[in-house]
Amino acid sequence: MKEEIQQEKKDVRFFPIFIAATLGVVLEIIAILVDEIVVGNLFTDDSFASVNLIEPYTYFETFLAYLISVGGAALIVRARGAGDYEKMNNLFSQTMILCAVFGIGLTAIYVVFTPQLVQFVADDPDVYQDAFDYFTYMRFYPLVDIFDTFFFTYVLYRGGYVHFYIAIVTRIGLNAFLSWQLGSVMGLAGIGLASIISLLVAVLIKMTFLFSKKHGLEFKLYFNLREALSIAWLGFPESALSMFIVIMELIVNRFTLRSYGAAGVAAVAVLINIFEFVFYLSEGLSEYVIVSVNDSIGKLSSKSMDRAIKTTKRSAFIEGAVLIALVVLGANVLPEAFDIDNPETASLATSMLYILAPTAIFICLTRVTAIFYQYTKRIPRTILLFGMAIAALPSVFTLVLGQISIKGIAVGMSLGPFAAIALMYLYVRFVKKEKLFDYSNMHLN
Q1: pLDDT, tens digit, 9 for 90 and up, residues 22-71
Q2: Do 156 and 76 touch, CB atoms closer than 8 A?
Q3: Which of 69, 318, 415, 426 has a CB 3.0–4.6 Å from the CB of 149, allowing a cystine?
Q4: Listed residue (21, 84, 16) closest to 295, CA to CA
Q5: C-alpha distance from residue 199 to each of 32, 65, 143, 285 (Å)
Q6: How far is Cα 371 from Cα 368, in angstroms, rounded to an integer?
Q7: Can you tell me whether residue 222 is helix, strand or coil?
Q8: How many Å apart are CA 443 and CA 445, to the nearest integer?
Q9: pTM above 0.85?
């Protein structure tokens, strides 16, 4: 096994990771939407609202899952690059233990405080009971989902693309079938149960990746508190993405509702969804950076790092340009896809999407730069860059420019990522006297 690891000295290939991660994100979004689609067809609008009201608990769970999983899987890749099989086993075992501890702990909190938690987000008789019914099984979701997040990253980083695709497609199909069947019999509780069963099957499929001699790792009772905290700190910036998105949504939606009413919120909702969707689609770039950077660090190879950075920057511009074209081409049909019926609101949403489109390049550059810093020991920069690009600057610009007109909100959201990457460039170039993608602190050969 050690000899096999030591022979894996070739550079990480871009397209297998990029395509797998990008397609994986699209499929994950579809998998998440299955519940809402089935609920929309089987139940009332109030029931649909109830399911969405539980989402903050899902976001928090996602935050914890990425906090544990991303850093752990990335360090396993780094250990593989160094040919350290024992380190890989220790990291794998520790991450699995953390998944179990956090999954059980969060589920216990959800179970003990179910009425209070549902009341907090659904304090209305029209939606409380439906939200409670849906949460009846979804409160056990962390027991499965946190493990799924770890295997999502681990299998992807180790090249298990076949397992990856089979697991996601199976999850979507099974969840759609079970949601319809159990939802018809058990109501919203059945929808939640279907989600757990389908996700569990997906986890088991991904775990078969471990059965091969080449990719399997030995589980043992290993735990090091300092190392666990380091893993959590390493994974924190990406896990914080979900929190930054929530902050931005809350600020922009509240301002829009107060200034331009419900019709304005509907138009801006399309804008926010596409803004987030571009961030999600840049996941492919992000995953490549994680694997290639950690692989280069493990090998102590500056040449490998230089090639990875060159590929990363070129790909960020290319994907950004492609996403701009997609947003522009889809601007006229996207409002209809989001079920915007009012022609004036739909026309407004289309106009704002044209304004938003160019920011796709800066979103991609922000994503890859922040992830590069995350794994080259500049984590505060990562948090700052993500926070500015996703939450702080889009919100501030929206509050200022939105006073002029509702289209100012689109301008404000567009300026956020551009200003974030520009400010970071000026800081590292003229204050720190570094290149934007500088790795001199890693001391590679």
Answers
A1: 777 777 667 666 666 676 567 665 666 667 677 778 778 878 888 888 78
A2: no
A3: 69
A4: 84
A5: 11, 14, 11, 25
A6: 5
A7: coil
A8: 7
A9: no
